[in-house]
UniProtKB/TrEMBL annotation:
This is Thymidine phosphorylase-like protein. InterPro entries: Nuc_phospho_transferase, Thymidine/pyrmidine_PPase. Keywords: Glycosyltransferase, Transferase. It comes from Chitinophaga pinensis (strain ATCC 43595 / DSM 2588 / LMG 13176 / NBRC 15968 / NCIMB 11800 / UQM 2034). The keyword Transmembrane does not apply. One of its GO terms (molecular function) is 1,4-alpha-oligoglucan phosphorylase activity. SUPFAM superfamilies: Nucleoside phosphorylase/phosphoribosyltransferase catalytic domain. GO terms for biological process: pyrimidine nucleobase metabolic process. It comes from the Bacteria. Coiled coil: none annotated.
Amino acid sequence: MRNLISYARQNELTDSEVLSLAVGLSQSGEVINILEGTSLYDIPSTGGPTSLSTLLCPLFLALTGRKVLKLGVPGRPAGGIDVLAQIEGYNIAPNTNLISRWLQNYNYVHFIVAENIASLDGKLFRFRRENDAIDIPSLAIASLLSKKIAVGLSHVGLDVRVSDFGNFGKNWNEAIRNATRFNRISALAGIYSQCFLTDGNAPQQPYIGRGESILALQKLFMGQADPWLEGHVDTCFKMSAMLTDGRMNKYSISELADYFFKNVVLQAGSKKSFDQIASLTIDGHKDTIKAAQNGVLKIDLKTVRDAIVAVQNRCSGAFPDPCGIILRKAANSYVSKNDDLCTIRCVEKYKKEFAESLKAAFYFVPQPINYKDLEIITNGKV
């Protein structure tokens, strides 16, 4: 693994090399047997805080009757699988027979890379994370594709979160180039793919953290989402609609909630636990960070992510949830001194340190920044 990372840092892997690596990683476990001819869909992401696309897009796809088989790895600070893992009883590592049976009876199954499926990809991903090698595009492409090949996906939409700390390039031009390459290699693997470029430097919605993601879903399902969260949900809907050739009727919130909780029950989770997590999360938001001055607000999401992950890493458990934030002001908005920028939740032991780390994420610029909304790449074209 160390030699592979060293080589990939110094050399541009060819498309065939990336594909060979993806196939090799995908074969390090069992194969999931689905009925022949069944089309399988997913919209994964390249990682980054604030987006809920890996939780919402499967619901939109399932609403159309598409079958969604979502194999993922832990996220930072709140990937889809580690958010679902907060729900009591939710089975994130079913065996392959159970996965096949679930998918025959329902449209959506979400699970994690484990010893029985794409295990070598999970080990390489952990090694890359521990050795600061997540942001090597060729390895990121191979890792993403390995999981799709392992479960036999036919259609993939990739949420490429473009940011200064992203793993598909540090700017839009680099991300477009790597997204185009992802489509090209996917085609070699027999997978139809589209890439959706979203701005990873700008918060997509205000709820950041594992419990906060569950709270955001509860707000949405109860019809209490604010315009910021609603706008992000609409972006996820657009991505899902594009992957299904635009043939997707406007959704209803009740349908979306129904599909979510059907999946929770299917995978042995508890709706009561979901509601309890949301309640405990909002109750934990007792402290506030205020604006230090007047100005146009900028939010450094890498600093936010690092602050949350630093506390998570100091807590026990597979997916600890000791902290999170809820933004009260959007990036690029004008704020006045002492306005609430965010509320924070943190275990008492690390609360002061967490707050101080977060303060560095908020600063001010003299003029607005024009963030991009969404760009879509299909077959190499923007």
